[in-house]
């Protein structure tokens, strides 16, 4: 049974690696075609690509900070729930003891 699970895991990883590889190949081909057929000069295209890269970097940074903020909030809420549950448990224990 364990061998079957290992084989499935290896197949899944191999499939994922193949998919990522084909995606990267497609992205490179798409980028090359886009640059070749760009309606602007090389300098303008580089400026445009640099601007888009900066926008992407800013978007990733914003998203990352939002994820960190949401994670902290969920952690605090979880911590509060655990504290409340412990308090309720303690009250229940005291009631049972009398």
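Sequence proposed for the structure above (98 residues):
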């Amino acid at each position: 049974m364990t061998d079957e699970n290992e084989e499935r895991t290896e197949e899944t990883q191999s499939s994922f690696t193949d998919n990522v590889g084909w995606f990267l190949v497609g992205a490179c081909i798409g980028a090359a075609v886009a640059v070749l057929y760009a309606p602007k000069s090389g300098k303008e295209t580089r400026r445009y690509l640099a601007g888009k890269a900066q926008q992407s970097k800013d978007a990733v940074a914003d998203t990352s900070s939002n994820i960190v903020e949401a994670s902290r909030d969920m952690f605090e809420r979880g911590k509060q729930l655990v504290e409340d549950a412990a308090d309720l448990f303690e009250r229940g224990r005291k009631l049972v003891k009398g």
